[in-house]
Every structure is written in C-alpha cells, then in structure tokens.
User: Fold this.
Amino acid sequence: MFKPWGDGFPPRSQHPTVVLFHYDRSKQARGYVMQIGRFFSLQQGRVGQYLAPRVLVVRSPFRAFSPTVCYFGFDHLKQAQTFAQKLASIGASFQIRRSRIMPQAYEIRLRGHSDLARTLAYWERQSDRTRRSSNSQTPSHQRIERSAIAA
Assistant:
C-alpha cells in the first residue's frame, strides 16, 4: 500500500520527521520516515503528503476530475467516532475504518475538504509545538515557575 522512496527513505531535508513502522502482510515491520510536508508516491498515479502526523492528503495530479482524499488518523475508536459526528453535522461524506493507510489504529477517509485537512494539521502542529516546548523546560525552570505562582 505505502511505497516510500526508492531506498526506503525520502531525501533528507529540514522538514520535521517522525519514524513510523509499517506492517506488511507478512507481519514484518519496516521502518520509514514520515516527513511533514514532503510528497511521496502511493503508486497508481497517486501522491501523498503528510500535513501532520495524523493528517494525510492524497492527490492524483495527472488525472482529470480526481478529487483529493484526506485521511485522519486516530488511536482510539471513540476519538474517530467523535470526529465523525462533527463531519456528519456539516454533511460531509466519509468512511471510518481500521487503518489501512495511516499509522494510527483507526482512520477516517474524507473525499475533498482539503481546506479542513490543512486547518486541522495546522492546529495539530501547534499543539505538538506547545507540548514540546513545555516538556523541554529544565527542572530548575519548572521550580522557578512554581515558586513564582506560589508567591
């Protein structure tokens, strides 16, 4: 299903990377690097682009009238169902299923709506940056902030 670049890894760049493991039918793990913002081949004239670790946009650039398909990954079924309710409320047509494309356990496949995918990816990246910056503080910085709050 997912075919990374020829040697198994896309070219190095300044894009953020996440190492994922893809299990093929023989149940062997194959590591590959997800580079946010980079295009990669999905075969059959399709290209994918991860906008965030949980947001993938798939296009068929050489086919006329081929809609964009967006995939959203979820670790738990309840998360996917909650998001599906929001999609249903705006009248979007989607599929919720066990993951075939995304590295998470469940995925929602949504035709069109690439603007929604871009917006969600933006907020996903922002929340990742916030989590990383709050976790990168040294213990002395955390103590200073706690003492400042207590005063």
About this structure: Residues 30 and 39 are 19 Å apart (CA to CA). The chain has one domain: 17-136.
